[in-house]
Amino acid sequence: MGATILLAASAIYRLGYKLHHKIFLQPKPQLHTPVVIVGSYLAGGAGKTPFTIWLAKLHSEQGKKVAVLCHTAAWDEFTLLRTELKSATIIATKNRYKTAKEIQDKFDIIICDDGFEDSRFTGAIRFCLDWQEPPQALSSLIPAGKFRSLKQDHDEREIIHLRCYESSNKPADIRFSTESITNFVPGTKLSATIICGLGNPSRFIKDIRAFGVNVEKTIIRRDHDKHFSQVVEAELTQSKDIVISQKDACRLPQATLSHPKLHIAIQKVTVLTAIPNTAIK
Asked: CB of 134 within 8 A of CB of 150?
């Protein structure tokens, strides 16, 4: 697709974005229970769900009743959240604001996994996982770029930016890395195929290589791929070791998860700033 066509498509997307917000996402009255939105300008692969899990555990450990909202379309993320957060209530919904309003009296804090563009939430705390400077130009928007909105679409007073990358003069605020890989002992040899259905497969592949795995082959699937299980099972018939993410593992039946040649990469979230703990009263 040529650059001109991509820019035209991005302009149409931009128009649709503005109309959708003007008609359907007008600001609503602020809820009296604190609402935290974990988001990013990126359309996918920013690490929103892992950070949501980290944040929910932090507040659950402080004795707070925590509810986590995710979109019904993100069924794999719902499964991961429910698996990792035993002390929080996980709710899948098509309308985060409506659901938050309905449950606000039952919880001390409501955390939204994504929903960065949902302008109905007045007064919400928005964490923005930044992987580079906020997008400024139309060419940054999908489908020409990887971003869903521009910096001017958001009230900077409500946003806490967390840098997920390091530069020469600023360290990262948050780091994502591979903590362990099931059925694999660091220092030993493992050559494997990586099958990835994440929003940012290149970062996942890089992390797996950094952990010491020899990547022989990569298979990239789209985010929330409903055929992921069939792809993995087909590869396993070739007696090759396979490495997948925790999120991708949520799409597999137990029989497949028990296969000795299937390895799951466990992600580690390291937060290097006190902001997430002090921003919410």
From this structure: yes
Assigned CATH for 3-168: 3.40.50
Q: What is the pLDDT of residues 125-160, one digit of tens each?
A: 999 999 988 899 999 999 999 999 999 999 888 899
Averaged pLDDT score across all residues of the chain = 92
Backbone torsions φ then ψ of 73, nearest 5 degrees: -70, -25
Q: Give the residue extent of every domain in the chain.
A: 3-168, 177-268
Tokens encoding 167? 């530069």
Determine the distance from the C-alpha atom of residue 169 to the mean position of all C-alpha atoms in its chain, rounded to a whole number.
26
Contact (Cβ atoms closer than 8 angstroms) between residue 263 and residue 241: yes
The Cα–Cα gap between 182 and 178 comes to 11
Decide which of 10 and 170 is more confident: 10
| Beta strands per DSSP E along the chain | 35-39, 66-71, 89-93, 109-113, 125-130, 159-163, 174-181, 191-196, 214-220, 242-245, 262-271
Judge whether 158 and 126 are in contact, CB under 8 Å.
yes
pLDDT of residue 278: 46
pLDDT in tens, 208-243: 999 999 999 999 999 888 899 999 999 999 988 999
